[in-house]
Amino acid sequence: MTLLSELFFLWVLSLKGTVAHPLMESNYLREQKNLEPLRRFQFPCELEKLSHSPSSSVHTLRPSDIKVIAAIGILQTTPDSRIDHEDLLQSPERTLLQASMGTLSALVSRFNPSVLHQPLPLKTSGAASGTKAISILDQAKEMVKCMKENQMIDFQKDWKLITVFFSAENLCSSCASTHQENCSLDSMERLTRVLDFLYQKVPKAFVNLVDSTEFRIFYLSHSDQNKIRAPCNCVDEDTKLDDIILRWSYQSDLEKLLNSGRYDVRDDFTIVLQPFLQEINLPHRMGWQVNGTSIPKTPEEITEEECSALGVGLWNNMVEPVGQKEHYHYAEMLQAQCPSQEYPYLFTYKNSNYSSSPRTSQPEALSQERSYGTSTPCFDRNPSNTVPVSVHNLRPADIKVIGALGDSLTAGNGAGSKPNNVLDVLTQYRGLSWSIGGDENITTITTLANILREFNPSLQGYSIGKGNQDSSNAFLNQAVAGARSENVPSQARRLVDLMKNDTRINFQEDWKLITLFIGGNDLCRFCDDPVHFSPDNFTNNIRIALDILHTEVPRAFVNLVTVLHIVTLRDVYQEKNVSCPRLIMRQQCPCVLNYDDNSTETQMLESFNRRYQEETHRLVESGRYDTKEDFTVVVQPFLQRVTVPKTEEGLPDSSYFAPDCFHFHQKTHSQAARALWNNMLEPLGNKTDAHFLEMAITLKCPSQTESFLRTYRNSNYTYPNQTTPDVTTPLPSSATPTPAQEPDQNHGSQLLCEDRAPSSSSPTSVHALKPADVQVIAALGDSLTAGNGIGAEPNNIMAMNTEYRGLAWSIGGDASLKNVTTLPNILREFNLNLTGYSTGIGGASEPNAFLNQAVPGAVAEKLPDQVRALVKLMKSDPRIDFNTDWKIITVLIGANDLCNYCKDPNYYSAVNFTSHIQEALDILHAEVPRALVNLVEVMDLLPLRHMFLDNQVQCPTHLTEDLCSCVLPVTEGSQELVMVMEATRAYQNSTRKLVESGRYDTQENFTVVLQPFFRNTKIPLLQDGRADISFLAPDCFHLSQKSQSQLSRTLWNTMLLPVGEKTDFFDPKANITLSCPTLHKPFLGTYRNRNYTYPPLEPTNKPIQNWGSDLSCPAQTPSESVPTSVHKLRPTDIKIVAALGDSLTTAVGAKATSVNDLQTAWRGLSWSIGGDGTLETHTTLPNILKKFNSELFGFSTGTEKETAGFNSAVGGAKANNMSTQARELVELMRGNSKINFKEDWKLITLFIGGNDLCHYCLDRETYSVENYVKHLQDTLDILYRELPRAFVNLVEIMEIAGLRQIERETSGCVIPGTIVCPCFLTPQESSPELQETKIINKDFQIKSMLMANTGRYAQREDFTVVVQPFFRNTIIPLDNNGKPDLSFFSMDCFHFTERGHAEMAIALWNNMLEPVGQKQSYNNFTHDRFKLKCPTPENPFLFTSRNSGLQNTTPAVGAGDPSVPYWAVILAAIAGVLVGSVLIGVLMSRRLKKHQHERDKATEVNLTAL
Predict the structure, then answer these.
(1) In degrees rounded to 5, what are phi and psi of residue 935?
(2) For the chain, how far is it from start to end, CA to CA, in angstroms?
(3) β-strand partners of 210
(4) In angstroms, rounded to a whole number, what is the distance separating the alpha carbons of residues 1052 and 1046?
């Protein structure tokens, strides 16, 4: 029995009184410090004057009447606990609750400044030396003793506020040997003794009773204090059904005790249960949210303000009527409530007019005498004439044994419980269980077993009565309450052992029916760990269990019941007219019930629920369990779309549930049994998957023509996913298999080389190295080299976690070349003593991995770490003579870099990629003697997209984001895809240049040889043109053993080819024969032994001559006639360009070389309006447009105002200046004789806001978001009213916060940033001022976008405003050292150079050619002359909302609503904001953690990363 221990605190000291003792003084000072956070809480109460005549009744007690505040509490320990008393006193748990009492004292002192509080001694006066803790009753006695002895307290007359913290939690409840119900009763008895003592001994007292059970559980589960955790190792176990029910029962009994009036006989005493901690959502339980991920917070990290908030919660409970008291929610900032004039007193049961009726869990009592039997209408109940040998000829009467696996729904928890008896839900009524119960018979109790006993009275295995899975009457009902899918394999193992060992069962001959139903508990907890409870892990657990049955159990028919549609449980929970113990429901199934209907968590639940069901079907439909004639698994889907039963009034009918409103009542067990039986008799493809449980379900009967339990074969049903031919129906010899893959089990090769001898003496030069001279082999890389999924069976996605290193192409050594083709197995044909190769399965640290140091998910940055590990292994292994043995090391890396390239082009740039490769090779070059390094070019991943785009190929498309997010899921022709394509070539070219630099040919015994066969990869196809997925692992991304074998052959042959003649093509389907060294070419090919001369390298720092671009669009012709609609406007139709804005549009400082140049406006180079030179020398929007219309007019040239053209921008302008610029522009155009004002199409670019943001903090009103948007709207209104035929680009303001990085990390800025942009560059990092300005920045973007997309400017056919968002998420370009690249910025580090203007022009042009809602929302400032997009024949027009498919085809002038409303445009735009923000968030977080860049290890089928 546990001991109750630890005195929390007793407060008896006036905040303004005289300090009478040094201890009091220190406590007083400490308390003043602790109460500091309280000042931040709102406390709007009008303080009443002190009452001269305190209340005589506790039911009219005001806060100002309270004279003494005290508290007692508990920390429970186990018998013989080694927890020191001092450890308990210093625990964060005590600190939190003590702080809450401090807050309460401070609140009360606002009404009565003379309220007293004083800490009690740490031990009772009579405690013996060495006593570990003080019981709560002892605490109460000591408290009373101190009060009586305190001369400042009139014990008989002063009102006392006493708070009692208690806990129903037994720290080792799940380990305790005694029955937990008895423990609960003991706890209640102990608490009752304490309350009785207070009632008898303390006059004038208001007692708060606070249940801190939840608080204690989560404190202990997150505590780092090993001394507190050590005594019991059960603290970390998941909450079980027993704990939940018992805790609720304890609380229910306590409420009954208080409602009984036991403590309300006296008018000066009461006890009130304050529930604020009952369902507490503490910081260390909830955690902080970072990028959508919950970060646990330890008790030690909780702030004083958070501690103090607990006291506010207690105070609020005291001034809330009983029955209306709220729980404390950490996520909300609490405001202290005030006593009202109508109810100025603390609430008690009596003054709340509260009457508690007994808890009921059902709207009406159920008669336990009611029969749930069924009549069986079947006449033919005979078995087969002879015992069938095929499961497809199995009659109900042939079944002799029944078994079941699952959770509490199969265990029968609460099935026979009486109404309102929630505690009885702990009872497992296994005899009533739907799938296996055998109590009484079918006339009174309907279960599957009782139905089958009508066909075979000798049925064995069913459960009877009550008890857990270990009781004898459970028999073959091995379901375990609380079980999840991960527990089912162990249940299957136990079931098999029981059947084998029971003398009543003939294990080999008896036909067995086994029902498996699981998944509810997985879904109830999925939000705690979505990876652990993923659909793939769920299915894998089911597969393991079924595999055990399939392998070990003869003559078995397995019902696999799909998980029910658990979301419908919310209907019961949310219906307030149905009385249910909702606390229990939430604790049993938090992930289903704790979230709003439209929350992300609920949507994710729906997705998981659906995928659990789908993957269950897919597993069985693979044909995996139809390879034996006497075994099958049949999915029974009757619960798949089940709904909550309803009453005649349309309310959820809780009579179908046990008293906890969660488990099934016998009523539902009966219906489930009927539905399962009928499912078993329904053919596959025609099974009922939705039942109304409140409707009568009539039992079906086998017929003469359909007398068997239905299987896929006797239903003449073909699985949609089956790839395994029926073993009982062999294909004729002339038939050709037509699954999605061609079978090929032989992965061996034949080597026909005659000369396999080594050199006559060990060579000293790597250029004279023969295959037989190689004594050590090693490999580095990612999951392609680690061997992920090589040996996985088709469709077994979970096997992608397995690293089949023994089969890996460049380093595996399983079996021999006859069976397994790998580079080591080829080399072992030349040298049987080869060492270093990997065997079997396992990670890089496993002994059998040996020198295969590849790591799944590795990027190039991690390659040097692999090299260091490899060198250390080779030096230390006694099998290797490090200085003498010749070594071949194969390196393949880069796929993961490409898969993430679009998220951070700078981080994954070719420069960075090559620098990592160089660092790794430099280590090998410096430290490893006698080595030939194969550097395999990065694989071209783009062909793999074909697998996921072909609907006829069954690939896991839901994994594309995880597998390779920048390649597989992106849209064809998108910028992301172009970026990856260019990056692939850049990776390949840069590694080639690195090797051809000769850097690694300075030693005679070392070289690096580039093996380029991955440069061009071909997808293997079947004869009908479909992709042949037999070459791929189950994820359709990694390579199967078939492809790995081909890789090995290709690598070997390429190693023998001369440098300069090596193959740059990989065709997995090619007939590849292993080559042999020849008499004239006996060596592995290097640059020297083939007389190859590397081509001369271009200077690495060759200066770029200009920042022009090359545009290679097909010839563009203007529209046949001048378009009248802006939505059919081609680039060739534009005649006039113009621009409005500030100094970024006037191009201030674009070519500045000194401080004096900083004021010069190089308008001719301006990104949106400059027209100097041509596109080949200066990239600007007009120079691009001049490629389409050489007569373009309006662009600016030079630096003078006279040649500004229609560039109306003014340096230093703000949003309030834009309407003036707009009017001037309109007048300029009207007065220009060279243009046709009414007929010519105009393109106007508006970009403003930087100066507003930079000065926001100086005048928040003038530069507010509202004013910014209003000024923009005024400007656009002028253009809309005055300009015919106009397309307006509204460029979103950039994210200016990035300028802080330049200011912080560079020293080349000639003007202090605080002068250029004070509101962004002056505040300290993480300061409230900076955070406010960042928010305003984002609001500028979002609200201007919303304004432009309201439809305000869409009522004219010849006018539109399009938001161009390329600056929405601004990325500061970095140089090779990771520092801001100042080549983009002028000397003030604020304005752009010509290079920066060129990149802005490219981004703007590309945005104009991207559909609204799909525009790139970040800048990609990397030099490439070929980045400009082209109009396509399918999309020749500049994109507007309407021609992007987001508006009606004509303006709705005076008409009804458009077919696609404007909110769709706004929604698409907002979606762009969110997607861009997520993308940029990932990008920037990766930058900030650049030196901690390491992927999480795959814990589920997230093997994604190569």
Answers:
(1) -100, 105
(2) 55
(3) 165, 274
(4) 10
| pLDDT value of position 46 | 67
Q: Identify the pLDDT of residue 433.
A: 97
- pLDDT tens profile 201-216: 999 999 999 887 766 6
Work out whether strand 3-5 and strand 75-77 pair parallel, antiparallel, or are unpaired: antiparallel
Residue type, 1234: K
Highest mean pLDDT among 275-279, 691-695, 1402-1406: 1402-1406
What kind and span of H or E run contains 142? helix 136-149
Distances (CA, A) of 1315 to 140, 1247, 1279, 1337, 1389: 66, 22, 34, 19, 12
- The string of DSSP codes covering 1374-1437 is B-TTSSB-GGGB-TTSSSB-HHHHHHHHHHHHHHHTS-TTS---B------TT------SS--S
* Cβ atoms within 10 Å of 1266's Cβ, excluding its own: 10
- Cβ(870)–Cβ(938) below 8 Å: no
User: How many C-alpha atoms does 1349 have within 13 Å on its Cβ side?
Assistant: 28
What angle, rounded to 10 degrees, do the helices at 1462-1488 and 1328-1348 form? Answer: 150
Q: Is the pLDDT of residue 90 over 50?
A: no
| Backbone torsion region of residue 973, taken as left when φ is above 0, otherwise alpha when ψ lies between -120 and 50, otherwise beta | left
**Token pair of 808, please?**
């890996």
Beta-sheet strand order (sheet of 66-72): 66-72, 159-166, 205-211, 269-274
How far apart (Å, rounded) are the C-alpha atoms in residues 640 and 688? Answer: 9
Report in angstroms the alpha-carbon separations of 992 from 557, 1377, 1422, 1433: 60, 22, 21, 37
Ranges assigned E (strand) in 140-180: 159-166
Residue closest to 380 by CA, chosen among 455, 309, 317, 434: 455
Q: Residue 359 has which token pair?
A: 């808890």
All residues at 6 or more sequence positions from 540 whose CB lies less than 8 Å from its CB, including other chains: 798
Query: For residue 93, what is the enclosing H or E element?
Result: helix 92-109
The one-letter code for the residue type at 520 is: G
* Mean of pLDDT over the chain: 81
C-alpha span between 1377 and 1490 (Å, rounded): 12
What is the Cα–Cα distance from 268 to 59, expressed in whole angstroms?
A: 8
**646/692 Cα distance (integer angstroms):** 9
The total of other beta-carbon atoms located within 10 Å of residue 22's CB is 8
Q: Nearest to residue 627, comparing CAs of 710, 551, 548?
A: 551
In angstroms, rounded to a whole number, what is the distance separating the alpha carbons of residues 416 and 421?
Answer: 10
Looking from the CA of 951 toward its CB, the CA atoms found within 13 Å total 0
Question: Tens digit of pLDDT for each residue in 239-262?
Answer: 456 777 777 777 777 777 887 778
Residues noted as catalytic: 408, 522, 663
DSSP designation for 504: T
> CA angle at residue 688 from 684 to 694, to 5 degrees?
160
3-state secondary structure of 345: coil
- Asked whether the beta carbons of 873 and 866 are under 8 A apart, the reply is no
Phi, psi torsion values for 975, nearest 5 degrees: -60, -35
Give CA separation, 1237 vs 1183, 1225, 1232, 1242, 1288, in Å. Answer: 22, 12, 8, 9, 16
Contact present, 134 and 127 (Cβ < 8 Å) = yes
pLDDT-derived band at 184 (thresholds 50, 70, 90) equals low
Mean per-residue pLDDT, 788-815 = 91
Q: Which two tokens stand for residue 1211?
A: 């340096």
- Helices marked H in 1168-1258 — which ranges? 1181-1185, 1218-1230, 1250-1254
Grouping H, G, I as helix, E, B as strand and the rest as coil, residue 254 is helix
User: Which carries the bigger pLDDT value, residue 230 or residue 617?
Assistant: 617
The token duo for 1070 is 């090619």
Using an 8 Å Cβ cutoff, are 415 and 670 in contact? no
Say what the pLDDT of residue 1109 is: 87
